[in-house]
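Notebook entry, cofactor series.
This is the third protein in the set we're modelling with a bound small molecule. For this one the ligand is NAI. I'm keeping the input format identical across the series so the outputs can be compared line by line later. Sequence and SMILES below, as received.
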Amino acid sequence: MKALFLGYGRMGSAIGNAWREADLVEQVIAVDPGLPNCEQTLVYPTLEAVPPEPFDIILVAVKPALVASALAGLGEALCAQAVVISVAAGIPLAVLEQALQGRCPVVRAMPNTPVLVGAGCTGLFGGSRLTVAQHQLVGRLFAAVGSAHWVDRETQLDAVTALSGSGPAYYHLFSEALAQAGVALGLPAELARRLAADTAFGAASLQRRPEADFAALRLAVTSPNGTTAAAIEVFDQDQTLRALVLRAATAAAVRSQELSRGE
Ligand SMILES: NC(=O)C1=CN([C@@H]2O[C@H](COP(=O)(O)OP(=O)(O)OC[C@H]3O[C@@H](n4cnc5c(N)ncnc54)[C@H](O)[C@@H]3O)[C@@H](O)[C@H]2O)C=CC1
Ligand SMILES: O=C(O)[C@@H]1CCC=N1
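Returned structure with ligand:
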């Protein structure tokens, strides 16, 4: 299987490298005017420079404002047999289909950066022209680099973006804050960083067990009148943390909706 990537920055290269390392695609070719040739990926500066051979998958991973123009330049020779996948936040199927003028079926995907280590999660929504075989292929491709989840309504992708698309950054911010707190409490910076990362990994591993209940996991750490209770009381005072998380996720979803209106 051959894959063409339009845009090979952080998200494009994370997916392309992961698919190639998992042997899901035999050849990855990218178009990216901002990159030199990568070690295992042939990178062309423009679409016109790509030899006119058909691809099975064409994944567009440019910034949302550039998606329509990047797709408009896709010639019949490249996309005659392809499924086009857009990972761009907010850009609606209707805009993607219009840019392609019906040349191929389209899927919207909202992955996240942990696809790079096979631990991503991706929300998917397919257009009406997608065949059952193509639906299965796209699901398999994203499941192979984490988990893949089809949503029923396109608008749900705004919530997926706010939760798991942007979500890794929330956890990284929390780890930054926790490591800084460790240093403030007297630990060497490297030890604080390591403890924060290992704690995030350990807690996530417990959360991913079948039937895991997040509240029960929290209570299992929280001895009555103990150290955790003292910290949780600060986080949960007047629902502070939960209210903040809701505000932050809502801001991300609203931004996704704005992007869909071209704002
Ligand atoms: N970074 C993330 O965690 C996630 C990003 N996304 C989406 O992925 C898309 C790309 O985001 P990032 O990878 O973070 O940005 P990025 O800036 O790292 O990558 C974008 C790449 O597109 C290239 N580019 C610009 N114009 C181009 C053109 N006309 N043709 C081909 N390539 C072109 C740039 O040189 C750059 O390397 C965005 O639409 C974003 O919404 C989706 C999920 C997660
Ligand atoms: O911040 C962004 O717009 C992109 C989409 C989800 C994660 N990064």
